[in-house]
Every structure is written in structure tokens, then in C-alpha cells.
From TrEMBL:
<dbReference type="GO" id="GO:0010181">
    <property type="term" value="F:FMN binding"/>
</dbReference>
<dbReference type="GO" id="GO:0070819">
    <property type="term" value="F:menaquinone-dependent protoporphyrinogen oxidase activity"/>
</dbReference>
<dbReference type="InterPro" id="IPR029039">
    <property type="entry name" value="Flavoprotein-like_sf"/>
</dbReference>
<dbReference type="GO" id="GO:0006783">
    <property type="term" value="P:heme biosynthetic process"/>
</dbReference>
<dbReference type="InterPro" id="IPR026816">
    <property type="entry name" value="Flavodoxin_dom"/>
</dbReference>
<dbReference type="Pfam" id="PF12724">
    <property type="entry name" value="Flavodoxin_5"/>
</dbReference>
<dbReference type="InterPro" id="IPR052200">
    <property type="entry name" value="Protoporphyrinogen_IX_DH"/>
</dbReference>
<feature type="domain" description="Flavodoxin">
    <location>
        <begin position="4"/>
        <end position="144"/>
    </location>
</feature>
<protein>
    <submittedName>
        <fullName>Flavodoxin-like protein</fullName>
    </submittedName>
</protein>
Length: 164
């Protein structure tokens, strides 16, 4: 099974999660950071597509939204995994997930997960630091990355037998 992971990573947390997924998914895996890489790929070459991003100011990255809009119909025909990196918990995190991914993609997914997140203040620009300080009262790096959720997500995907 060939898997494509498309994601955006602003400060490296989503990239960490993708690295763990790559190590734990069976079959071939290509990961592409839509924010940084210009890797060319054709969705037809992949049985499985995994989409992930992080929340900034309550929204997933624009490049993830654009990827979903551009490939929406094709994504509905794939084995699909969706994940989100965010610092919120409970209903707020679920609401952010539901806002990030259209309902029909969520319904079609074989795996969905919230991976927790990090505030990497040391990697933020001045504006980001001010927002995080004001909104969350955070002035130092903090991590709530959920390794168990990442491993469970990979395991769930590995258990699915492709219908393609």
C-alpha cells in the first residue's frame, strides 16, 4: 500500500507527528509539507491519503484548505486519514477539527485523530509570541504532543485493508 501524507508545519510540531507516522505506517510513504516543499505527486499513485495540519488563530493552514478544495472529489475515493495538531482539548478541539475538515471527508475517513500540540515560543515571530502570551498566557515552550494518539492513528490505518 502506498500512502501520501500531506501536511503543513509552521514550527515543526506537525512535522514531528508526520515523522512518527512515517516510521509506523506499513508500505511506502511519501510525506509532503505543502508549506515548504514543491514535490510533485499524483494522487492516483496512492491508495491512502493522510491530511494533517495545525491550528493557528482557530483555523487550519490555508494550503491545507486549498489542497482539500482542489482534490475534494478524488479524496472521497481514497482510503483517508485526517489529523489535527492543536493545543486545545475537549469540545474546543473537536470543533476545530470539524471546522478544519469537511463533513463528507470526515465521514469517509478510516482514521481521525487529535494529536495534541506544542507552543514553541522559541520558534515564533514577534507577533505570534504576543498573541500566544495574550490569549493563552504562555511565554515559554510547552508541549502536549500525544504520542499515544499518533501511534493509535498509525495502528488503525495499518489494520485497514484497502478497498482500492
Amino acid at each position: 500500500m502506498n500512502s501520501l501524507i500531506v501536511y503543513c508545519s509552521s514550527h515543526g510540531t506537525t512535522e514531528k507527528a508526520v515523522g512518527l507516522l512515517c516510521e509506523n505506517l506499513e508500505g511506502g510513504v511519501l510525506s509532503v509539507d505543502l508549506k515548504r516543499e514543491k514535490t510533485m505527486f499524483d494522487l492516483k499513485d496512492f491508495d491512502r491519503v493522510i491530511i494533517g495540519g495545525s491550528i493557528h488563530a482557530g483555523q487550519i493552514q490555508r494550503k491545507i484548505k486549498k489542497f482539500i478544495q482542489t482534490h475534494h472529489d478524488e479524496l472521497l475515493e481514497k482510503e483517508l486519514g485526517l489529523f489535527l495538531v492543536c493545543m486545545r482539548d475537549g469540545d474546543t478541539a473537536i470543533e476545530q477539527f470539524n471546522t478544519a475538515y469537511p463533513q463528507d471527508l470526515r465521514k469517509n475517513s478510516v482514521a481521525m485523530a487529535l494529536f495534541g500540540g506544542e507552543f514553541l515560543v522559541s520558534k515564533m515571530n514577534f507577533f505570534e509570541r504576543q498573541v500566544v502570551k495574550k490569549v493563552d498566557g504562555v511565554m515559554n515552550d510547552q508541549t502536549k504532543l500525544d504520542m499515544e494518539a499518533i501511534m493509535e492513528f498509525a495502528s488503525r490505518l495499518n489494520q485497514v485493508k484497502s478497498f482500492v
